[in-house]
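idk why but the lab printer keeps eating my pages so im just putting this in chat instead. protein + iron/sulfur cluster:
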Amino acid sequence: MTLHVKVEREKCCGYGICAEICPSVYKLDDQGFAYVDTELVSSDDEDSAVEGAEACPELAIVLVRS
Ligand code: SF4
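predcted complex ->
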């Protein structure tokens, strides 16, 4: 099972909490909104990627295991 993450940018309000918790997965653009370089999360980053997603106040990060 691999973890994929997706940021629903229309929901993101730019709090930056996800990037604070898991900077290797969640990046912030010039305006402070989150994006990911790749939706595929390495196994090393899984725990903090999930933690970052669960901390998002806007529930803007979707996690998919497949
Ligand atoms: S925590 Fe949520 S609202 Fe904040 S930057 Fe990340 S995705 Fe956007």
